[in-house]
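Dear support,

We are seeing what looks like truncated structure output for some complexes. This example has three components. We would appreciate it if you could run it in full and send us the complete token output so we can diff it against ours.
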Amino acid sequence: MNALLTAVPQWGARLRDPRYLPVTGTLVALLLILVVGQLRYTEKRSFLSMKLFSNLLVDNSYLLVLAVGMTFVIITGGIDLSVGAVVALVGLTTAKLLIAGVPLWAVLAIGVLVGSAFGTLIGVMVQYFDVQPFIASLAAMFLARGLCNVVSVESLGIKHEGFAELASWKLKFGEGRESWSINLSMLVAFAVLAVAFVILHHTRFGRTVYGLGAGDGGTAVALMGLRAKSTRVWVYVISGTCAGIAGILFTLYTKSGFNLTGIGMELDAIAAVVIGGALLTGGGGFVLGSAAGVLVYGLLQVVIAREGLQSWWTKVLIGVVLLAFVLLQRALGTRRARRRPVPVTPTPQVAAPA
Amino acid sequence: MTDQKDPGQAPVVEMRGITIEFPGVKALDGVDLTIRPGEVHALMGENGAGKSTLIKILTGVYQPGAGAIRVAGEDVRFGSTADSQAAGISTVYQEVNLCPNLSVAENIMLGHEVRRGPFVDWSATRRAATKHLARLGLDLDPASILDSHSLAVQQLCAIARAMVVRPRVLILDEPTSSLDKAEVAELFRVVRGLRDEGVAILFVSHFLDQVYEISDRMTILRNGRLVGEHRTAELSRMDLVSAMVGRSGEILADVGERAARVAAAEHDRAEPVLSAQGLGRPGSAAPFDLDLFEGEIVGMAGLLGSGRTELARLLFGADKPSEGALAVRGDTRAPSPLVSLRRGVVYSSEDRKKEGIIGDLTVRENIALAIQAGRGALRKVPAKELDAVVAKYIEALQIHPANPDALVRNLSGGNQQKVLLARWLATGPKVLILDEPTRGIDVGAKAEIQRLVTELADQGLSVLFISSELEEVLRLSERVVVLRDRHVAGVIHNGPDVTVETVLETIAERAAS
Amino acid sequence: MNAPNNVVANLRRLTRHHLFWPVAALVALVLACGAYSPGFLDVTVADSHLFGQPVDILRQSVTPLLLGLGMCLVIATGGIDLSVGAVMAISLAVSLTFIDANGPGTATALTALVIGLITALVIGTFNGFLVTVLGIQPFIATMILMVAGRGVAMLVTKGQITTTASPAFKSIGSGFVLGVPTPVVIGAVVLAIVAVLVRRTALGMLVESIGINREASRLAGVRATGLIWTVYAICGLLAGLAGIVYGAPTMAADANNIGLMKELDAIMVVVLGGTKLDGGKFSLAGVVVGSLLLTTIERAVIIFHIPSQVTPLFKALVLIVVCLAASERLRRAVTGLLPVRRLQEAS
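Here is the complete output from our reference environment:
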């Protein structure tokens, strides 16, 4: 994380770099919500507090992990619609296996691997069978939901002791009303975020992920002698694995598995990533931006709750925000329509049999 | 500049008797190519000459059916692009094949980046990139995003990347096609620098001026065969163009010395059917004037990439002109495909597959498409009327198979072209723009299409006829618009004393500036 | 050419028809059900209404049929509409909320129907606007409503499962017209209208040409914007109608569950009917066969006493198989294995 520290002084200049402009927008949005919240909701105690952030992360750590995985896929210009369904399937699998008496460590490992398996399925369909990412992941989403129904159509509560311990483990700070804590899900989410950051920004693989999103179907990356094909499969595996981890975190959060869990969760994750500055057309995006996007998403929910609005407003509002960001990207994209060379040579034609 | 080089110096690349066949086509037939260290070697040829195939063999994309390749005196067989790169051959492609969203340093170094364990050492990598850029005399911030630089700089970054592996041979495939004058000069400065370091450079370009400016020797291909190898200084432009274009020995059916006859006749010059004034679009075609009169065939000649297609697309509205005015029989609306169609201007694209036929639809539907588009979706052409139209054109153009329900993608190239002609003729056009209508089709079909074009003109249609075959252009047209480097270089009035050479001279003329 | 050769040639032509395999699967499935459960194919008349398994299958196939017809056109243009399930929920919620506020009269029911359909049309138009005017990728544009749409439906019902009573409205889903179930009549009428709309005008051909080769179509003067926009509007409208027909018998607007995963059904019946997901040629008859096949599968699951939870799993597997089968690479691999057949086809 040394690089992160040395990078801090440069940030001021970087905020105006076109690369980071969308993220600057995210940070502005974040600050705006925080300031408005501080002014509007501070009554007996400050709105801005460690407790606020602690609660935000407790409620959204699973989403943070999902968003990190989704960021990889979206940077390559793909999409993964299956993650919500995979979260539900992992939850049900975990519950079912724990009830069946399988040891905890094995259950957790199997849960994550279920996610990886779905990611692999999508990646192979996309890379080797030329199925469009949204169709491939849609099929995987329906497959995961179908499997959920086979596992159980009823909510399965988890009463496993070890699991309950993991769920309730936390480090407490502060006293009384101001107390806040760090729980296991937060630590896992931060670890995933840190690993993803290092992979994306400090390995050849990570830079290949960005290169795949350059908008030429990976031609440039392949011509550079980088592993275009396997990288494309791997981003889906990473997204699936993150969905597996998120599934476990979500199960720790709800202590149950249910087949209707996570409907629309993929949109939440996509929204967080897009709000965090990633381009849906590929080629740009940052995991730290996505993390900020998750915070914006969480704060929106807090605001909705504080305003006394019903929870379904979240879905509508997220839809509106997502639409706004998609339109914004569209506008930015047309404005700096790339000055790509106009090929002079028409594609060589193989003479048609006359 | 080339004088100090010893002509006997051992070649770095020798390709001998290279032959390769694709299903139905012999793409290369016994071609030789010799490149020496410290020279810029131009590879010249028109479309279909086999330049790109030859380059793909040298870079290991294709494996030749026969022939031998020697690099630095050793026999080699390239099974893949990696083999070729390992032998010291690097390529920079026409379209900048880099990632515009990554930094300059990444684009230059990725794959050879400096690493510390599994992680990239960014500061060392950036320093290395700076060093490679400096070798080309470039001073760029390696951390800046590639997209923030001009295309020329991006092109130079591609060269810097190619030079990272210290290749013996650098292939530059159309590196200048989208650069302006100053940018080309910058590129050539870099190329000369590399040449002087002893790198062998294979240079492919359609711009004759540039070839003469930069190259020491050249190899000319035509129709997959070697036409000659010359020192640039010893070959006149005229000879080069003649060698590239060649003489097709085919004797086609006599289409009646129409050109000569009509050129003598007086058109009603008062009122052009189509009139363009200062029409242009940056990066596509420089502003030009053109009048087209009733019953006239105007040919358009120029080398590949000279702007023929671009100009035609502006006239039709396939690309929006950004300056100038276009009037079609007094109608001055901005052109778009539908507007043009409705006022009787139609355009048959040179790219039949991508921009012409709708492969999965039938012959009938393909012919109906333009009439239908003109009427709008709701007023379907009655089946009876359509059947009559389709039957008429299948017969008139001798489309084979004469089955309106055959899928167009199953037809031969010539018949697909006839279906496209039928599509346009069925709309009753006043102006017909034909872009390479005879490319890739057999001799018989070619003659039929030529005859048809003259008949149409006799019926009062104005035709703009674009073709790479100069004989064809001269046989048909009354005037020939000659293009060079996306400018109209001249208009030749056809007559008995106008020959292929006349046109070639205009094409080969050194740009005045 | 001798006689056996002729038979073989005809047979091959028959098996190559794009509806051969779906129809064959449908017939085989129906026969299997008939054999396993005698009386499966019986149709009885009671109260001068038709009853029996085949009638039920027809009735239930109307929802996927309506969704599939719209989806089929959208897919033909090379797009997709992921919002149809949410649109079903919204239009039903709008209709039922209107009835809830205005009482059970027949006139109210009709107005509710019209309002529900207009809502759906507006949503479809919105999708079309995003796709054509703003140029957003179809799956992203419609994905926004796929989930936000359910929030909108919740807004309409204020988070409740609105239950109300209106015999007239209910009969849209459960009534009979001249002895035939109302949904079947609606399905048949809509099918006829859509068929006339796309095949008696040039809409169908132009949509196909856009889906096959957009640039060539543009150069031929076809203006894609209006056509594609229309197609998304039609798809929205039909999804709204499907929601009302599907939800009317329950008279309960359950915003979370009405039309849940029906996008899958819609895509399924389109691909089962032989229309490729890449766009281009489409077959309305294929959608009819596809929706009958899908419904019969669902019914067969019950007849064969297979746990009904398996159905979605089965559907997903079919979709994956169809996707893979459409893949060029797989086809090349398979045809490479069958050189003899290739040769025959070429000759």
